[in-house]
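Technical note accompanying the year-one report. For the benefit of new consortium partners, we illustrate the data format agreed upon in the data management plan: each record pairs a sequence with a structure-token string. No post-processing was applied to the example shown here.
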Amino acid sequence: MPEQRDQGAEMYEYEIATAVHSADLIREAAEYRTARAAGRAHRASLPDQEARRRVRTLRSRFTRAAHSAPRTV
């Protein structure tokens, strides 16, 4: 009988360790999401953010046009 009691105690300890690890992962994921949201909010509040988006859009259009243009060499 003591063997069954030890096995049950080990299983209980394993479950506790697994629950603690899961809680840690959930907490880390929540902190990561909060940090990402704060970064996005900060970038969105920059005064020249709209101008940066326009430049990036124009640059990507130019790059696509340059890549699709026929070569004349």
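Partners are asked to follow this layout when depositing records. The mean pLDDT is 76.
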